[in-house]
Amino acid sequence: MTERSFAELVAEATGAPVTGWGFSWLDGRATEERPPWGYARLMATRMAQVSAALDVDTGGGEVLAGVPTPPPLLVATEGWPPNAALARRTLRRLGATVVRVGRAPVLPFRDGTFELVTSRHPIDTWWDEIARVLRPGGTYLSQQIGPGTMRELSEAILGPLPPATGRHPAHAVAAAEAAGLTVVRLEEATLRAVFHDVGAVVWFLRKVVWTVPDFDVERYRPQLATLHERIRAEGPFVAHARRFLIEARNPAP
């Protein structure tokens, strides 16, 4: 098979849709190890045990849609309009209500509405609001992005970066406890991510915007071309994703 050019790979990845939170476009082009705790399985188990649940930053609803036994009251929030519209279609069969939220750290629900709040890779964690909408004895379960995630890829585009300080598990624990929650589980994982061509890199950077916050193909074309030649000469580009699982409970009276 003829090797595809840099221009062809970049054009294809630039034109591909990035709506939602699915990654099937990368099938055969990139891989990432899964965390050992199995977040989707954990979420599904917890959803089957409660009567009211909220999924925050649901994306296109892809992860929540895998829940086989949803609770009678199931609500999801999403801030990006295209994702919110996709989530409404995706989650219709579960009977879930999708609520679009703004940037203000406010969840538009009454105090103590939910037994379970979940979130996979939230943009921000509004700990005070999560504590407020949880019922006494309720649980928050979240898989989050760890510090320095995909640093190798960020530095391939941006050059050397200062040490990562944000999104640290210890900060999450402190914020949860400050909101009155009790952290009952905390796990961390470093996961190998492999990119087989520069098109996969471009699509990933368009979708996972915090990797290179101002990413634009034309702005970073020289760096992308260098990465393309590196992959051709040395083989797939390897980076490491960092994740942590946090579970916190609202103490029962």
From TrEMBL:
GO molecular function: S-adenosylmethionine-dependent methyltransferase activity
Domain named Methyltransferase type: residues: 54-140
Domain of life: Bacteria
Any Pfam family hit: Methyltransf_11
SUPFAM superfamilies in UniProt: S-adenosyl-L-methionine-dependent methyltransferases (SSF53335)
One BP annotation, GO: methylation
Keyword set, alphabetical order: Methyltransferase, Transferase
Name of this protein: Methyltransferase domain-containing protein
Protein source organism: Micromonospora halophytica
